[in-house]
Specification:
The chain is α/β, with parallel strands linked by helices. It contains 23 helices and seven strands. The strands form two sheets. It has a five-stranded mixed beta sheet, sandwiched between helices. Strands 1-2 form a two-stranded antiparallel ribbon. Helix 1 (about 5-20) packs parallel to helix 5 (about 110-120), helix 7 packs parallel to helix 9 and helix 11 (about 220-225) crosses helix 12. The two termini are about 45 Å apart.
Length: about 550
């Protein structure tokens, strides 16, 4: 890597890190994933076992541990807070932006690298994922670095670059599994076959996989030795194979699931994505083909998978940003074939703003009507800023100032971020009762007390913020058994369920000791255990 490449990568990485870490600790951890992964890191510190991951006191055989290792290591040094829990997501995403600049420079030139990094850093889903304590940015950082080094090896036949590609793929695997190797490998193999350069990889055909295994597979080996099929069955059989061929954790979706996801996630650059794709597809260029192949592969791969989540297509955005940057630079130079496509983009900018505002409000009114109504005064300023970006860009482009139009799009998320942090998030936080409920619990619970939650399996933040193990109960019989098993038991019950189950009154020795939002906190003080009743054990996660 030359000095110019290093300086460019460092500059865009630091700039992205400033954007991603602004107000990073604002707001409590979200259910499901943020609270669960952070609790895994907390239990790693509590038990001293950094290999067998645990959640709510039970082995958690789901994902590799790299991200939780980073969380736990940081927490050991400076404590575990919302900001430190999210720190490595922000760092990883900033690295993604830096690698995007290198990819843009490798495929085209330095100007493309600069603009591609700026576009990637200001895409909505890139910003959002950078500010959540989830491991998708860490996976993407390793995966994108593997692709970059693989392309360097493809161009130079460098054995050293090949080894770096294998190592980065191993790092991605240690973050979220073999997908960290699969996607870059498929693209690089396809490119090698097309250019008849696949043979260059013979130089690392033995040492490369060994290096990949040394970096990416130790956790799989250690846990297989420790737990055997108890580990392999869920990790490989369920969460790897079944996730693709079937539906895991009730997360299905139609084949077109990712069309609206990508439209929203690429905001405010959505209007330029389709014209840029058309522009690249019309021109025979190896660099164009890399972009189209990567974007197409990721979208098709996850579209045919049975389990679907918005974060799965995160790898699309940085490479899509390179394509958008190349199209914009060619349009600024009035290159052949860009004028009409850029005019289409201007029209789509207005549609983008309408899609964002109307779509979000309609979704909120349908799925969360009460919360959306309560949050509307705090949502409107953020929506106004987000809509103003593409609308201003469209107006500037119509007036003939294309560079100013691009600047308006670049500034959209930069301006929206402090509005979201200081106006929207505090209002959202007031609608989230679990942290306040957990604080009430911590003030009342004594050593030896037990905690249960009724029909709240999708609320792992209760485990994290209460700082104790939670029995998750489903039925009245489960609750009766738990009440009999403990002389002092706290129970969290959703308000609707409370009115249904206890319309005739609370059980003996049980009283209401608090309420936050739509949750009631009950406490049972009485003799235990009940005669003839076996103590209840919490269901396995």
């Amino acid at each position: 890597m030359s000095g110019g490449e290093c300086r460019q990568m460092l500059a865009v990485t630091l700039a992205a890190l400033l954007l991603f870490t602004y107000g990073l600790g604002a707001g409590s951890l979200w259910d499901q994933d943020e609270a669960k992964y952070t609790q895994v890191a907390a239990e790693m510190l509590a038990t001293g076992d950094w290999w067998t991951l645990r959640w709510n006191g039970e082995p958690w055989f789901v994902h590799p541990p790299l991200f939780m290792w980073l969380q736990a290591a940081t927490a050991r040094l400076v404590g575990l807070t919302e900001a430190t829990a999210r720190w490595w997501s922000a760092v990883s995403q900033a690295v993604v932006v830096g690698v995007t600049s290198l990819l843009g420079r490798l495929l085209y030139d330095a100007r493309t690298g600069w603009l591609a990094a700026a576009v990637a850093a200001t895409m909505l889903q890139m910003v959002v994922q950078a500010r959540l304590a989830v491991f998708d940015p860490t996976l993407l950082a390793g995966m994108l670095a593997a692709l970059y080094m693989g392309l360097v090896a493809h161009a130079t036949a460098s054995r050293r670059a090949q080894h770096w590609a294998w190592a980065w793929a191993g790092l991605a695997t240690s973050a979220k599994g073999p997908i960290g190797l699969l996607l870059p490998a498929v693209v690089l193999v396809a490119l090698g076959m097309r250019a008849r350069r696949l043979g260059i990889w013979r130089a690392s055909l033995v040492t490369g996989p060994l290096l990949y295994a040394a970096v990416g597979l130790p956790w799989y080996v250690v846990e297989t030795v420790r737990h055997g099929w108890t580990f392999l069955r869920p990790v490989v059989g369920y969460y790897l194979i079944t996730r693709f061929v079937g539906v895991v954790e009730e997360q299905p979706g139609p084949w077109w699931y990712y069309a609206p996801v990508l439209a929203a996630g690429a905001f405010p650059w959505t209007a330029l994505a389709l014209p840029a794709g058309v522009y690249l597809a019309r021109r025979a260029s190896a660099s164009h083909q890399v972009i189209l192949l990567w974007v197409g592969l990721v979208v098709v791969f996850y579209s045919i998978a049975g389990t679907k989540l918005p974060n799965y297509v995160l790898p699309v955005y940085p490479v899509l940003a390179i394509g958008i940057a190349r199209f914009c630079l060619d349009a600024l130079a009035d290159a052949p074939g860009t004028r009409r496509l850029f005019q289409v983009s201007v029209g789509l900018l207005v549609a983008t703003a309408v899609f964002l505002v109307v779509g979000l409000l309609a979704f909120g009114a349908r799925q969360y009507p009460a919360e959306t109504a309560a949050l509307l005064p705090a949502l409107l300023p953020a929506l106004a800023v987000l809509a103003a970006g593409p609308l201003s860009a469209a107006l500037l482009a119509i007036l003939g100032s294309r560079r100013a139009a691009l600047c308006a799009l670049l500034l959209t998320m930069v301006v929206a971020t402090p509005v979201l942090v200081h106006v929207t998030l505090p209002a959202v936080e007031r609608q989230r009762p679990i942290p306040r409920l957990a604080a009430l619990l911590r003030g009342q619970m004594q050593p030896g007390d037990a905690l249960a939650a009724v029909q709240m399996r999708t609320t792992p933040s209760l485990v994290y913020y209460a700082g104790t193990r939670v029995q998750f109960l489903r039925t009245r019989d489960d609750l009766a058994q738990a009440l009999c098993a403990h002389s002092r038991l706290f129970v969290v019950v959703p308000d609707g369920l409370y009115r249904s189950w206890f319309a005739a009154g609370l059980p003996p020795d049980v009283r209401t000791v608090g309420q936050e939002g739509t949750y009631r906190l009950l406490r049972k003080d009485g003799p235990a255990p009940c005669a003839g009743t076996r103590p209840a054990s919490p269901p396995r996660p």
